[in-house]
Amino acid sequence: MSIKNSLKKFGKGFGYAFSGLWRCIRTQRNMRFHIGAAGAVAALAAICSVSRSEALALMLTVGGVLALETVNTAIEYTVDLACKGERSEKAGAAKDCAAGAVLVFCFGAVGVACAVFLTRINEIFAYFADKPAAVIAAAVYAALWFCWVFVCFNGEK
Ligand SMILES: Nc1ncnc2c1ncn2[C@@H]1O[C@H](COP(=O)(O)OP(=O)(O)OP(=O)(O)O)[C@@H](O)[C@H]1O
């Protein structure tokens, strides 16, 4: 295969990956929830000016949750394809186990977030206490997050 064709295929691979991610976002409420949570974590990290190692831990856990949710979606599609609409105990168990894996990682992510942010809770309250605009921005973010999770792309499979 020529280098030109190899490069073309390499580029196309990224396209397929982004298309998979976009499908996951459109079809999975949980994925949209995680993305909203990632935005909130990024904002809190900026407010608290976390250390480099804390930022690293947060980025790894956020990335892990999003990646695992994408794998969970792939497993759901594969199971649905294999079942062709039939119900089966094993199919249900496969989906439940995949969802359980995401849940375990989410518990870990919440642990990391607590370890980073709970020690700075006073700093966070102090930041919002004298900035009414920041409180309004947080409320608007929460409302948009809710719509992003429960209204956008509703019913897409
Ligand atoms: N083919 C199947 N056979 C048996 N149980 C299934 C099957 N498909 C799904 N289930 C059960 O239903 C649960 C939810 O399945 P899934 O994540 O596919 O969502 P859904 O039923 O399509 O609904 P939605 O995506 O709207 O939340 C699974 O975790 C599993 O327990």
From TrEMBL:
The highest taxon in the source lineage is: Bacteria
Which residues are a divalent metal cation-binding? E76
Q: Which GO terms describe its cellular component?
A: plasma membrane
Question: How the protein sits in the membrane?
Answer: Multi-pass membrane protein
Location of the protein in the cell: Cell membrane
| Alphabetical GO biological process terms | phospholipid biosynthetic process
Record CDD domains: UDPK_IM_like (cd14265)
Which residues are annotated as active site?
E69 (proton acceptor)
Q: What's a Pfam family this protein contains? A: DAGK_prokar
Instruction: Write out the GO MF terms.
Output: ATP binding; kinase activity; metal ion binding
The record's similarity note reads: Belongs to the bacterial diacylglycerol kinase family.
Protein name per UniProt = Putative undecaprenol kinase
